[in-house]
Amino acid sequence: MCGIVAAVAQRQVAPILLEGLSRLEYRGYDSCGLCTVNQHEFTCLKTVEKVTALKAMVQKQGCPGTTGIAHTRWATHGEPSVTNAHPHIIGDLALVHNGIIENFAELKNALIAEGYEFKSQTDTEVLLAEIHFLAVKKGLPLKTAFAKALRNVKGSYAIALVDRKNPETLLCARQGSPFVIGLGIEENFVASDVLALLPVTHRFIYPEEGSIAEITVSSVKVFDLNLNERKTEICESDLDAESISKGKYRHFMQKEIFEQPQALEHTSLGRICDGTVDLSSVRGFTADFLKNIENIKIVACGTSYHAGLVGKYWFEELAGISSSVEIASEYRYRKAVVKPHSLFITISQSGETADTLASLRLAQNQGYEASLCICNVAASSLVRESDYAMLTRAGAEIGVASTKAFTTQLLCLLLLSTYLGTVQKKINDTQCNEICNAISELPNAASEVLECDHRIALLAERFAGKHHCLFLGRGIMYPIALEGALKLKEISYIHAEGYAAGELKHGPIALIDENMPVVVVAPDNELLGKLESNIEEVRARGGKLFVFSQGKTNLKSDSQTEIIALPASNPVLHPILFTLPLQLLAYYCALINGTDVDQPRNLAKSVTVE
Ligand code: AGP
Questions:
Q1: Percentage above 90 pLDDT, the chain
Q2: Which candidate in 30, 70, 169, 352 could, as Cys together with 5 as Cys, close a disulfide (CB 3.0–4.6 Å)?
Q3: Which of the following is catalytic: 46, 255, 466, 605?
Q4: Mean pLDDT score across all residues of the chain
Q5: Beta strand pairing call for 180-183 and 188-191
Q6: Where is 496: in which H helix or E strand?
C-alpha cells in the first residue's frame, strides 16, 4: 500500500527520499510525490507515473532542502491523479499519509463550514486541514494541534508533517499503519518500512500503535496521543541494502522463486534436532508450550490464508487437533464461538495486513488460550502483539506475488503440527523421525523440482491467448490448486479458479472446452485414483489438461493431456514441492502476457487498509 519516507538532515534530502521511494515501490502504488523545504519555501513535485519519472522531474526542476517528505500512493479516496497524489499542502504545512481516515466526510463538512476549500478528493487533505484549523485558526502550538487532530480522527494512519516555517522538526504519527524511525548521525528518518532506509541507517525505533514522534537532526522524541513521552528502544537491523536487489534475475519474483531452497533451509535451521522438532526459537516459548491446546483457529488473507488451509490438514492429521481456517476480513466482523483450549493462529508475510491484525486484536478478548503468529517480518505489529511468534525467515520478499513466504509458512505449519503431534502423543518417535528426515531433505528436493524451469517456460506458451483457467486438486492439494490459481490471476491477469476436483461436476465442469486449460496437481498419494477419475471427466469433454504428477499416474501424455513429471518425494512435502512449478507457470505466463510481474496492476504488497 502507500509508502512514506521523510528525512531531516544537514545534507540535501531529495536523493534520500527518492531512493527510499524506489525501495517502497514493491508495496504497490499508482502515483508518487515529494516535498522539500528550502529557505522556508516548499518545492513539491508529483506524478501519476513511476518513481523514475519523479527522479527525472527532480533532476530537471531541482528539489532543494534538508528536510522533506515523500510518498507512493495507492488510491483509496479519489482516483490516481496529480491532485490526489501526496504530499498535500495547506498554508505552511505539508503532509503525507498511509491509511484511511474513516470519519473524513464528517470532518470535511465541519471544515467547509469554517471556510476551508478542498482541492483533492482525499481523506488526507481533510486530516491536514483539521491540523491546520487547530494550529492556525485555533492558535494551538503545532504539536498540540497535531495530537488533538489525531484524537479527533477515526481510522488508520502513518503520517509525516513538515512546517515550512519550522523545517527543523518533522512531526510523525502512527495508528494502525506501520512506520519506523531510522537513526542517523546528525540526521534522522521515517519510513513505512526498514527496507526504504537501509542505505542510510541500520538503527531503528519501532513506535507502538498510537504514537507521535517529534524528530529533528539530533533528537527523536516519541509520545502517546496525549503527548505523554514514551520510552523507546533502538533495534539494529541485520538486513543489508543488497537484500532488495534482483541480482542476476530479471524480476524479484523470479529471484524469490529460486531462493526457496535456501529460504526453506533457514526456516528449519535449529528447529530439527536429533529427529525431533525443537521450537524453542519461537518467541514466547516455554516448557509447556501449547500443551493444553484442543482446537485451532487459523486466520489470514490471500496466499497466507491458503497456507492456513494446508495447515488445517496437518493439524488434524498429525496432531489430531480440530482446526478451522477463516479469511481475516470475514472473521473480524462475525461473532465467533470460541471453544475451550483454543489457539488462535495468524499467518502473514508482512505482519501488517490490516484485517489480520484486526482479527488478532479481536481474538485477544474472545477467550482464546493464546495467540501465535507465523510471520516473515520480525519487527512487524503482528509479531509484537502475538503471545507467540514463529518467524518464517524467508528474507525480504519484494515481488507482490508471495512465493518464498508461502512455502516457508507451509514449513512452519508442518513443524508446528509435527511438534504438537508429538506433544499430544498422536505421532510416535518413528513417525516424527520420518517427517524430520523429509524436512532435512526439503532444500535439495526443492532445488530438484526447480530444474523443471525450462519445461514450464515452454508449457506457458500453451497458455498464450487463454483468458480462463481451472486448477484442480484433492485433499491437502486442494489449497495448492487455490494458490496456483491466485498466482496465475494476480500476475498474468488470466482469470483462474481453484477447485476441489471432486466438486467439478457440481458446476464448473460446464466451463470445460478446448479454450479452458485445466491444471491438475496430482502427486502420488491415496487420492490419486479419485483424481484420475476427475481428470477423465475433463478429457471426455474435450478439455486440455496439464497434469503435475510424479510418474505413478495411469494417465499418458497425448494431444489432450500433458503430463509433467516431478521427482518422487515424501508425501508430507507434496504441498510445498508442488507449489513451485505453479509459481513458475504463473511467472512465465505473465512474461508472455507482458504484465508488470513484480508490481501487478491494482495490487499492493502489504495491505495496510481494510
Ligand atoms: C499473494 O501473492 C498476495 N499478493 C496476497 O494474497 C497476500 O498473500 C495477502 O495480501 C496477505 O498478505 P500477508 O501475508 O502480508 O498478510
A1: 82
A2: 70
A3: 605
A4: 94
A5: antiparallel
A6: strand 495-500
